[in-house]
Design goal:
The chain has four helices and no strands. The chain is mainly alpha-helical. α1 crosses α3 and α2 crosses α3. The longest helix is centred in the N-terminal third of the chain and has 31 residues. The protein starts with a helix and ends with a helix. The relative contact order is 0.19.
């Protein structure tokens, strides 16, 4: 059980790093975007706030999970919601393995 908890904690740290990298990419995008892109981004962010939680639960899947965690940071999804979704996904994943 302790090993499982440590594995989940490690995965949360890794997912958080991807989230942070997504936030940095968003900051870089802000400095190079125009107002037309900004309107599209706002619409995408609104959609992501509704649907990304469900996708973040599946962040344990290789490559797909990395893209989802980067997207969550890039779209500035609430960090607490992001962590909750990743935690739920990881717990179910490890319960299924054990």
């Amino acid at each position: 059980m302790i090993i499982t908890a440590l594995a989940i904690a490690g995965n949360l740290i890794g997912s958080s790093c991807n989230y942070l990298l997504g936030r940095v990419m968003n900051h870089v995008k802000k400095t190079t975007s125009n107002s037309k892109d900004s309107k599209k981004f706002i619409a995408l962010k609104a959609m992501a706030n509704k649907k990304l939680f469900a996708f973040a639960i599946f962040s344990f899947i290789p490559l797909f999970g990395t893209a989802i965690t980067l997207a969550a940071g890039f779209l500035k999804i609430s960090y607490s919601r992001f962590l909750l979704a990743v935690l739920v996904g990881r717990v179910f994943y490890y319960l299924f393995l054990v």
